Amino acid sequence: MINQLCSLIDTWNIFIFFLHKLTCLLGVDV
Question: What is the pLDDT of residue 18?
């Protein structure tokens, strides 16, 4: 259960990272 949660958080962090990169590329300041 704990490992599943950790991997879920890692996936979410990667998603946030790419989302942030995308917004930076678009010139949107978040």
Answer: 93
